[in-house]
Amino acid sequence: PRLMEMKPNQLTPETALQEPVFQILRNLVTDLNRDAYLVGGFVRDLLLSRPCVDLDIVTIGSGIELAKAF
Hints:
By secondary structure, the protein is of the alpha+beta class. It contains four helices and two strands; from the N terminus they run H-H-E-H-E-H.
């Protein structure tokens, strides 16, 4: 399945969180009873209306466990 439906330059703060990758991530951290935060260049680029080409995610606890579950 495609994780991003929109092209990077089409994302806005309002539409980005509707992308499948974020819905999957939201479900995953909910199932694992974790918090996860978008940080770094993605947030900056989104706010400046620049193309967003990667995601930086930080979580409390094991990022490896989160990545394996993804």
